[in-house]
Structure formats: C-alpha cells, structure tokens
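Allow me, if you will, to draw on your knowledge of protein folds for a short while. I have a record of one protein: its chain in single-letter code and its fold written as discrete structure tokens. Kindly check, if you would, that the fold set down in the tokens agrees with what the sequence suggests. Thank you for your consideration; the sequence and its tokens are set out here:
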Amino acid sequence: MTTMVDSTQAREAQYVLQTYRRQPVTLTRGEGARLWDVDGREYLDLLSGIGVASLGHANPGLARVITDQAQTLLHTSNLFFHPLQGQLAEQLTRLSGLQRAFFCNSGTEAMEAALKFARRYFYTLGETRTEIIALERSFHGRTIGALSITSDEHYRAPFEPLLSGVKWIPANDPAALAAAVSTNTLAIVVEPIQGEGGVRLLTPEFARGVNEASARTGAIVIADEVQSGCGRTGHVFYSEVIGLKPHLMTLGKALGAGVPVGAVLLGQDVASKISYGDHGTTYGGNLLACRAALYFVDQLVNGGVMAHVAKVGKVYEQRLRALAAKHSFIREVRGAGLMWGLDLSIDSSTIVPLGLKHGVIVNRTADTVVRMLPPLTITDGEIAEGLSRLDKALTELERSK
C-alpha cells in the first residue's frame, strides 16, 4: 500500500526541480509553535519556516484578515491605487525613520531592488560608481545581484560572471572597512546580524565605521534586515540597536507572517532620484500581501508581540547558555531576542535529523551552527519543551562522536 508520504515524495522526485535536499518529513498541519506530519507526529518548530511564520502557524487573526481580503479583492496590479499599500508604507516608514517604501515579494527581490536604486541614485547625480563593499560570511539571496554580494563561493561559482567590483571585508573590522571604501564605492551592504553566516552580530563600533565611511565618500548604506528585522530581536530593526544609519533597508520573511511580501525602505535623498519606470513588480504590494503585513505590524507594535520577544528572548538565552554549560562541544552562544545560533566545535550536519527524531525543528548553517528562529509568539513553556528536545538531540550527537 502506498502511503501519502511515499506518494508525496515520489511525485516531487518525478516532477519538481531538485534544488532542495528536503528532510524526509511531510508536514500537513500547524498551530502556534507546533507542526504535525502526515503520520500525526508532533514537532516543536524552532525555525518557523526560516523566520517566516512570525505569528505562529494557523494564527487565527491572520487567517481572518486574509480570508476577508480574499473575499473582497486580491490583486489589481500597480497600475491602480488601492487603500492598503499606502497604509503599510506609512507604518513602516514611521517605524524606520526612512521616508519611502517599495513593495515586492521576498527579501531577495528587495535586495535586488535596493542595488538598482543605489545605482540609479548615482546615475542621476551623473556619477559612475562600480564598487560594492560586502562582508565575509554574508548572505543576501540567490538572484544575480543578491548572489553577487553573497560571500560563500559555492553559491556563486556556477553562475559567474556576476556583478563586478565587489570587495569582501571581514565583519567587525573597522580598519579593513575604512581601507576598502573609496569615492568609487557605490554601496556598503551589511546584515546587522549575519543569519546564514552563523548568527553573527555586527558591533556598534563597526556600524559607526560604516556611517563614517559613508559620510566621507558618499557611499550608500544598505542594511539587510530580512532576518534580523521586524521584531525578531525584540527591536523593530537591529540597525537601531547598533547605531547603523542606512539609506536603504531590505525587509522580508517575518513581515507577511507567511504571506510572501518584501520591501525596500528608502531615505528621501535616494527616493528623490528614482523615476517612473525605473523598477516594477506584478505582484508586489498587492492587497493580500499588504493586508497580511498590516496585521503583522499591528500585532508587533500594538498587540504586544515585540515586548513579548524582548521578554521571552531573555528566557531563551538563559536556557541556551545552560545547554552550552552542559555540552562541552557548544563553543559559543550567539544571538538576540528570538534569533539564536549554537556554534559547535564539530560539524552540525546531523543535528537536523536528530532534532526531528526527538520532535524539534532547527536548522544547520555555516557548517557548525545550529540556528533557531522560532515564532515570535512562542511561550516560555514551548521554549522549555523545545530546548529540552534539542538537548536530547545534542546528547545523542555528542555520544555518537
């Protein structure tokens, strides 16, 4: 007899382009921080779809608003006005201190747009700048522009030549930054917390160096807040924590709470150099995406979610540090709010299947790091339960070495 798992995986193997090496689990239902597979097995989700299911799975309020919107009007294209895009832009600009918003469908699309906007800015000024400063261990996406400033060579090599003029510098090295930035620098692109690079936090000293280099040379500062933004750290954006002053900011992941939406926030100086037709999108900023994002932002700011993250983030950190004290192969705990990484002294590739075995979903990145991006609504009890299951997985991993 063929099970649903067998048929699902067999059908994908035959018809879906094989760009993902999926875990052999077929998920069918979720509620809050929990997921269930086709066999009814339950998991604590400490990854939330790589930081996307920010309000948890099957959030009743989100379900109501997107159902209402689907029954009213989903999409009109950007050839017409609709009432929601301006409302969302107003909310995000007020929260960020930047003055304009451009909407798209993902964080990668947002970065692609930001690079275009930076180029258009200097074109309008009559300058041709070709250099982009990017950080080692960075990840900004897989489209051609975003890939060009993603540091891991195994992502880039099969698709070269990419954008030229990219200079790589170590994160948190103000001297290397100062030496690299010149009057030919188009943009300095940074993640305030490097996610795929192993949950590595930029320092206020480095952020100050970015601000100073920009002021000295006129280079555009682009902050990639796709993972670290939208309340993930207990602050709306992590740029504000370290004192980074971006001209452009990219958003995605948590913003739609599961509905695809990305955004670029722009300062007025850059925005004033953009003209009609310079960029566009068919789906970006449609009514469904904006309605979901408006609901998320309201919950974040007015519904207590951001304050909740700040509170439970401390509990999460305490429990992770207790795990590190218990397991000698955890060499560092890094993160903020509900964005955390356990850096192991061994390859962490087996931690994902071991986690699934013990009923917890985590992610492995940067070879040795166990990354966690749980729903922003996770409770103290769910944190305790999820990390207890992770403890069992780590114990099994330790015993196998």
Q: What stands out?
A: Residues 256 and 292 are 5 Å apart (CA to CA). The mean pLDDT is 97. Residues 73-301 form a domain with the Aspartate Aminotransferase; domain 2 fold (CATH 3.40.640.10).
